[in-house]
Write a structure and sequence with these properties.
Length: 260
Amino acid sequence: MTHAPRAEKPLPEANRKIIVALDVETPTTARAIINDLDGVIDTFKIGLQLFTSAGSVFVRELVEKGVKVFLDLKFHDIPNTVAKAGVEVARLGVWMFNVHALGGSEMMKRTVGDVNEACSKDNLAVPQIIGVTVLTSSGTDTLRETGIDREVDDEVVYLAKLAANCGLDGVVAAPNDISLIRDAVHRPGFLIVTPGIRPKFATNDDQRRVMTPEGALFKGSDYLVIGRPIIHEQDRRAAVTKILADINAASNSIDRNFIL
């Protein structure tokens, strides 16, 4: 069974680059955010907190309403387990999901292969599968604690190249890592999804490696994951409008067609 998208006029490209993180406790709050941003944002991220609270039923509910869902559960387990989980995620109809690149090549290749096979067999849209490199809250000290001796930049590049070689569609990477990945991975269409995005009006919170939306897009990010600077604002729609204004102003002032 395929999941049909909403029959609405497509959003402008700049709008479609923003993924709003539904980092909230309940599906009721998540629905309110989605309703507030109707017609402005069409893609939302469901992470561990909301998925644990609301489960796959809520994911399916959103998909059936035509919402594009990035399921951010960062799968990391033995290859068979992650591959089977990936197949079930594809059956939910999500647009994108992720796995930890640290899970290794066998895990990633098996997941890509099994998901593609299941989607072909069941006539499902194939979700984008992306790899997590180094979390935006992590630094060199964090890597050292877990036994990784590479510097953060080197580890990010290593894992991004591994993910690309295993057939993943892209990676999640911090803003400061975008240029490094673009220089290292030359596969056409390789996606970079960027958390740690903080508009000029927002604070950094617990993110160490952050950047403005327009800065991340200029460096080569494909999608921006933005949570608190939007969902914690009293007027969420106005917050998105401010972000889009900064993006469009930057694209108009820089001699490079990096957005529109």
